[in-house]
Amino acid sequence: MVPLLIPFTPKSGAKESLATGDSVVMAAASSELSPMDKALTWEIDNFSERKGVMTSDPFSSGGCKWCVMFFPKGHDGNHDLSMFLHDANWKSLSPGWKRRAHFRLYLLNQSGKHLYRSPGQNICSLFCAEDPGWGFRTNLTLAKLQEQGFLEKNKLIIQVYIKVVEVVHQGKSTANEMLDFNGFQIIASQSASVNKIFKEHPGFANAVIPKNRGAYTNLLLGLVNTLSKSPQMLSMTELSNAQSELTELSAAGFKLDWLKSKLEEVSLERERALSDGSRVQQLEERVNNVELALSDLKVELEKQKIKFAAAAAIFSSFEFIDSLIKRFFISCFSISKH
User: Fold this and answer.
1) Is position 244 within any domain?
2) What is the span of the domain harbouring residue 155?
């Protein structure tokens, strides 16, 4: 498996100082016959005893200061030896700083045997505020080195070759700067999300040669973004387009079983949501109908109250007149007796 280029941001406080016996040789610029200049040779003694992250002393190349961070016990949950190159002064640099450089990292034993050589001689990496460091996992562990007899005299040597092609000390934001990420052409602000894809699904692009990956960058990121939305927010058109995009990417050689499963999951959740929503809508319609009928009954009740009040008033008037008539006749009867 081809080692993947990994973005790296150094963390303060995670440094093991160079112990006695470690030596660092800063190399002057070599002849122009070499595409990259050897910038550092770092000899690490007592390697098997190293536990935490190790950081080289700063070294110069291309007018910039660099550092190498080495993880003898692995990095980010992985146990493979890992090496990263980063700008030594990245925290104190001015806004908009960037460096573009070709680089290679080598791991050798005491005899000078190459145990690991990073790929990417033709890749120009962008170092900036969003991605101050880049590096690789070596697919080697301390146990593997010892089992295969590669670790001689308990010493390892790291060599760094760099060719700086652009240096900007201050400028506009680099968030939209284009960079090559294992064949994908992305902007700097997307490196974290793309790195997450490679970390969680490391073999998804193995069948697609790096130079052909760039054409599918936007398609892949767009599909991942679509399927990260809430199912209720997705339309049938978006799901149909997602299926077409998934088919196109799979035909190109990408192994996207995880996205296929995600699409099926999202589609099913959407159907359930629509079904639940339809039931809710039906209940709401029934409630509205009941409320409307109740409103009509209230109106009819008020009408009946008014009619009853009017009728009662008329009946009361008749009673009053009848009472007057009775009183009149009683009075007349009383007068006639006298």
Assistant:
1) no
2) 6-187
3-state secondary structure of 38: strand
* Residue 201 in domain: no
Q: Closest by alpha carbon to 6, among 195, 203, 230, 215?
A: 195
Helix (H) or strand (E) holding 241: helix 236-251
With a CB cutoff of 8 Å and minimum separation 6, the contacts of 165 are 62, 100, 101, 102, 124
- CATH number for 90: 2.60.210.10
Enter the tokens of residue 287.
């409630």
AA identity, residue 309: A
Give the total number of structural domains in the chain: 1
312 has a pLDDT exceeding 90: no
The dihedral through the CA atoms of 67, 68, 70, 75 has a sign that is: positive
Judge whether 79 lies within some domain.
yes
Give the Cα separation of 239 and 231 in Å (integer): 10
| The amino acid at 128 | C
DSSP letters, 84-111, are EEEETTTTTSPTT-EEEEEEEEEEEETT
CA dihedral 184, 186, 188, 193 (to 10 degrees): -70
Helix (H) or strand (E) holding 68: strand 64-71
Residue 208 placed within a domain:
no
What does the block give as tokens for 59? 């070294």
**At 180, is the pLDDT very low, low, confident or very high (cuts 50, 70, 90)?**
confident
For residue 191 the two structure tokens come to 């490196």
Q: Which of 188-197, 278-287, 325-334 has the highest mean pLDDT?
A: 188-197
Q: Tell me how far apart the alpha carbons of residues 133 and 71 are, in angstroms, rounded to a whole number.
A: 14
198, 208 Cβ separation under 8 angstroms: no
